[in-house]
Amino acid sequence: MADTVQLTAADGFALPAYVARPTGTPKAAVVVLQEIFGVNVHIRQVADVYAAAGYLAVAPATFHRVKPGVDLGYTMDDMGAGMALKAAVEALSPPGVLQDIRAAVDYAAAALGAGGKVGVVGYCWGGLLTWRSACLLSGISAAVPYYGGGMTVGTEPARSARCPVLCHFGELDKHISQDSVAAFKAGQSGKTPPVAVQVYAADHGFNCDHRGSYDPAAAELARTRTLAFFAKHLG
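-> structure tokens emitted (235 positions)
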């Protein structure tokens, strides 16, 4: 079962979130963070997959502060529009969109009740936001960034996670260099909570079956690892 709910951030800003609910009582919750294409059909399908696995899945519209109702495809024009929207959100004064993710985490925690655990998973730009959330927000028990553009460069690798993190990257990704992934992995090695890095023989966007870069084998292996990771840390 799925519907749309309204979240309210700490500054009073209201934004929608797609919520997919499992059959029966959720075992935990997962906040699903969008790519640069909005809470589109792919992200809704991803949320549905987590709901089918027993999790309450919440996908907040993280473009809503700059443009409501974004639901893009994967053409070159869509890519350009998504990149412009991402730049606009990234230009917001801190804490920017992190307070909207905070609202999604709080909604999920309240829906679960006492003792419920919340994880975060994100794709592309959502992977970067997942990494930031793992490092800067409380109340997150596990985080899984998929090919997080920007998280291996600049000041991002210097951050330290507050919860266990499992990162997925593609070795054929032209947007994220393997040198930067290796440096990120080395820099996070030995830290507590741990940050694990998995690399696949796949391109950027390998999880999305609406893109030409979709790799079924890599997507399935990453999904299996992600669900095992969440089972370990969320229950």
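The helical segments are 41-52, 76-90, 98-112, 125-136, 178-188, 216-233.
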